[in-house]
Design brief:
Number of domains: 1
Helix content: 40-55%
Shape: globular
Low-confidence stretches: none
CATH topology: TIM Barrel
Distance between the termini: 15 Å
CATH class: Alpha Beta
Radius of gyration: 17 Å
Strand order of the largest sheet: 4-5-6-7-8
CATH superfamily: Metal-dependent hydrolases
Length: 254
Amino acid sequence: MSRLRPIDLHAHVSPEIGTADLVGLGALVFAVTRSIDEAEAALDRRDEWTVWGAGCHPGLVSAQQTFDVDRFEALLERTPFVSEIGLDGSSRVPMPLQRQRLGEILAVLQTSPRIASIHSYRATAEVLTELEARPISGAILHWWLGDQAQTARALGLGCYFSVNTSSLKHRDLLGIIPIERIFSETDHPFGDRYRKGVRRPGAVEDVELAIAACHGISQEAVRQRLWRNLANLVSQTGTARQFSRTLRANLASV
């Protein structure tokens, strides 16, 4: 198998986890945060193989109510990754407030591009409308459940997509997402709850194998492709300097 580590583009990880535990995952993990306060705590860390995000989860009332765009903009100086942001049609947060927060975040990302993992549960069309109003580089639609027409619309916006074990129940999605626009994720502990075997951030081998089967290539070729996808995103967003030296070396190698 490739010397490249698997990529988990979206996982929930406690900012209090030990460094050794993160290294033991054996993967490149993009760790999302749900609020400004959680992001500030996480971004104090310096983990070689974990990229901590700055987020404002659409499903959390407190995160949405206490979001401050100036604090968020300041946090972007410390990370190449924004997540978890987006819209949620099942949330107790009123949709007008969700749209306001997402609009504020997208406006910042238009001038300070970052890799952005975007939540769209029961709000796929609404998220696309927001992205059309404020186009950004680096958008990744996490756990995407849009139909074929919405997927084509997202592709036209330059979006990428991240797929987890639960996504694999919708096998047709893999066939309509170009391999150069896809990533693996766990969304641990939510998107991998039905995964057979170990459940932990970074455990994306079943996703890699599903992508490989869909495209008739090896798992190693899939992993190399996902790293090239990441390298392309880093180039598009101009965020290379915000990754660790180790990650920059790996990105340069692909």
